[in-house]
Design goal:
The complex is a heterodimer. Chain A is α/β, with parallel strands linked by helices. In chain A, 32% of the residues lie in helices and 20% in strands. Chain B is built from 13 helices and eleven strands. The chains are: A alpha/beta, B alpha/beta.
Chain lengths: 361, 390
């Protein structure tokens, strides 16, 4: 057994353990620490490891969901960093925390890292909260809600003839269907596309089924470098390529129907170097899946979002990391040999991360 | 393999209570542009951008780095946003250093900022939260009882904090970028300023500042080749470390936190330092409230526990005549754009070993410590930089 040689970085690093809490519309019996604790316990138990085995800890979250400063400080109590640990935090989806940990693992000083992310959208009005993410001088004061912005993007896609409302509905129906097999998913049912297309518009051209659910959840993964990965899992999900890119924040300066940052990251991560079995894509709105899929260059043979994807569960700050955990799970169970995971951050796919995971064939 | 890396470009803003002449984008660009100029580079030469700042509520913008992507030349590049409370400026520099040390990138721009005048940090720190102890009076209110505990344990006389306040403000007079320039500063002036959080007088506290800090961190080959062109020396990174511990638990030593001691031990081991007072030429240490100088002198191993105040009192930490000058730039007590404050410590340490600190230069400095802490003195980040490779 030997790890495939990575195309980015020098040292093979694998996702070896993954846990998540069920995505729920409202977790009101647990705060962030309490929501995280069972997830952290599970990710360690699955790896037969403890916090003392971790060389580094990195998390992703945002203060604006909780409406107060330092939400990550409190969350760290879910790990219990005593004696003190080497630890860091990104104000981004935890997929980028995984990236930060992966970078450190490249140096060969440490072999293991815990990565986690969490978010409770139920604490506020997410559409108004996310409006505070926009350019504070020119856009924020207009308080555009995220569904209206996503509708602009969907309209750009339709106007260019790159997709159809029918395709949006098919994506939603497929996501809900696949989510029936995922106990952690939130929106899970069998519903004909024709029925979805009878729904009224939330914001034209987006019908309700094209919108991600509002979710509360947490997720965690353990990264292990080199041959130690085989001590944890029989078939490690090796990160053979990973990259992320950002675009301008100014919507008017971007072609909203394409994602150049995703395409760049996918190219650098080496997606096209081999066949892809499955992909977990983080396009929270149905039209965004079309854009991301096209940008990465995935053909019809690739199974998209077998977990149900973000249309079935979309916990802020964790949904990107969950894509990576779900893709790794397909490597572990042998249903995929080469998988792609994608994460997005910021309004209208402004920032994107693409990761290629491989198992030995 | 940990690859060598070095600081080859440094920039900072003129820190002020209100920088009403610039937007947030203008503020960060001012520092970033200066760092690029120092490195002899332009925006297009940079491989990746790492941004840091303290809580987003300090400006009232969620993840402001997204809107700053264009202003920082990050479009089409990887951009990371770090947030580790008050230590963030240091942690951000460390994340940037790792991007080079790992061999992933060769030229990384790192920027940290705070524009406190856009919002109200005291308010942002005081949002009530169910089942959590309120900070109410801000950071000073949190740290004052810990300072009291230090005074009680060490038997330090009451005026040690005031001496630090005077020393750092006198040193700030030699730093054109410092926010506070108080030419008349004296012990009497500090003592007569109002008592904010007993034992901390108004003048023993850091100001609220608008400001930004930036560095270009490069690989060994790039550092050597650009240095030949610019004629300015690199500051080589000899070690970096971060440590965290929980905010509260029974028996936690908040006066002399274990995480700080562990972090120092780690960074010294990487840099080959066994006696920091002897082997370091100067240090830029996060001292937002005067008494944290003697407390951190002990925590960072510059003296035995209980002796920190004696070092301060003897003048050992003064730029003028001290053997181990601390905060020659004036430190956090003279400029506190919170998210940038840690990076300013890291950057000032690098300036010293490049012999580019101007009037507040420690003569012949070749090895320096940069330090930052945050949260309830529970998050630590440190680096040691030197004029020679290690």
């Amino acid at each position: 057994m030997s790890a495939p040689k990575p195309v980015v970085g020098n040292r093979p690093v694998a996702i070896c353990s993954f846990a998540q809490s069920p995505s729920l519309r409202r977790v009101d019996q647990a705060n962030e620490v309490e929501m995280l604790m069972p997830v952290i316990a599970e990710v360690f138990a699955k790896a037969n490891m403890t916090k003392d085995d971790m060389g580094f800890i990195c998390s992703g979250s945002t203060d604006y969901l909780i409406g107060g400063p330092f939400s990550f400080v409190m969350a760290l109590d879910a790990v219990g960093v005593w004696p003190p640990k080497s630890e860091s935090h990104v104000e981004m989806d935890a997929a980028w925390a995984l990236y930060e940990a992966w970078v450190q693992l490249q140096e060969g000083v440490i072999d293991t890292a815990l990565v986690y992310g969490f978010g409770k959208s139920s604490l506020g009005d997410l559409s108004r909260v996310l409006a505070m993410q926009l350019d504070p001088y020119t856009m924020g004061p207009l308080w555009p809600d995220q569904v209206s912005l996503a509708a602009l993007q969907a309209r750009a896609l339709l106007d260019r003839g790159l997709s159809t409302e029918q395709e949006f509905a098919e994506i939603a129906a497929r996501s809900r269907h696949d989510a029936l097999k995922n106990p952690n998913a939130q929106v899970r049912n069998e519903i004909p596309v024709a029925e979805l297309l009878e729904e009224a518009y939330a914001v034209s051209p987006l019908r309700r089924h094209t919108l991600p659910p509002l979710s509360d959840a947490a997720a965690a993964v353990i990264l292990v470098a080199g041959d130690r990965a085989y001590d944890v899992v029989d078939r490690p999900a090796w990160i053979t390529g990973i990259d992320h890119r950002v675009e301008t924040h100014a919507f008017g300066a971007r072609d909203l129907a394409v994602s150049t940052s995703t395409a760049m990251a996918a190219k650098i991560a080496g997606v096209g170097n081999g066949p892809v079995d499955i992909a977990e894509l983080h396009g929270p709105f149905a039209p965004q899946e079309v854009i991301v899929r096209q940008a990465i260059g995935l053909d019809d043979s690739v199974t998209i979002n077998p977990s149900g994807g973000p249309l079935a569960a979309n916990p802020m700050m964790a949904a990107g990391l969950i894509r990576m955990g779900e893709a790794a799970s397909r490597i572990w169970d042998g249903s995929a040999t080469r998988a792609v995971a994608h994460a997005t951050s910021g309004p209208l796919l402004q920032q994107n991360l693409v990761c290629v995971l491989e198992g030995e064939s | 393999m940990t690859e060598r890396c070095a600081v080859i470009g440094i920039g900072q803003t003129y820190h002020k209570a209100k920088r009403e002449d610039v937007s947030i984008a203008g503020l960060v660009r001012e520092a970033a542009r200066a760092a690029l100029d120092d490195a002899g580079m332009d925006w297009g030469d940079i491989d990746a951008v790492v941004v840091g700042k303290a809580p987003d509520m300090f400006e009232g913008i969620m993840m402001p780095e997204l809107y700053l992507a264009s202003a920082l030349g990050a479009v089409g590049k990887p951009m990371l946003r770090v947030h580790t409370a008050g230590s963030v400026g240091g942690s951000t520099a460390i994340v940037a250093a790792h991007l080079v040390q790992s061999g992933i990138h060769k030229r990384v721009l790192t920027v940290a900022f705070e524009k406190q005048s856009d919002s109200d940090a005291m308010w942002a720190l005081s949002v009530p939260r169910p089942f959590s102890a309120p900070l109410l009076a801000g950071a000073g209110g949190y740290f004052a009882p810990i300072i009291r505990a230090y005074m009680h344990r060490s038997g330090a006389p009451n005026d040690v904090g005031m001496k630090v306040a005077v020393k750092d403000r006198l040193q700030a007079l030699k730093n054109p970028y410092a926010h506070l320039h108080l030419p008349d500063i004296s012990l009497k002036m500090v003592e007569e300023s109002i008592m904010l959080w007993d034992p901390l007088h108004y003048l023993e506290s850091c100001p609220s500042s608008d400001g930004a800090a930036a560095m270009v961190i490069a690989s060994e080959d790039v550092a050597e080749s650009t240095s030949k062109v610019t004629g300015r020396p690199p500051a080589w990174v000899h070690g970096t470390a971060m440590r965290s511990e929980p905010t509260m638990f029974a028996g936690r030593n908040q006066v002399n936190p274990q995480a700080g001691r562990d972090c120092a031990k780690d960074v010294y081991a990487q840099a080959g330092i066994t006696n920091p007072r002897q082997q370091l030429d100067c240090a830029e240490v996060y001292v937002p409230f005067s008494w944290y100088e003697p407390m951190w002198l002990e925590n960072l191993g510059f003296c035995d526990e209980g002796d920190g105040w004696k070092l301060t009192e003897s003048g050992a930490t003064a730029l003028d005549g001290g053997d181990i000058p601390w905060n020659c730039s004036g430190g956090v007590l003279s400029s506190n754009p919170i998210g940038a404050s840690g990076m300013l410590r890291f950057l000032e340490a690098a300036l010293q070993v490049r012999n580019m600190a101007g009037e507040h230069q420690v003569e012949g400095a070749s090895r320096a410590l940069g330090h930052a802490y945050g949260g309830g003195s529970q998050f630590f980040s440190m680096w040691v930089v030197g004029s020679d490779k290690r």
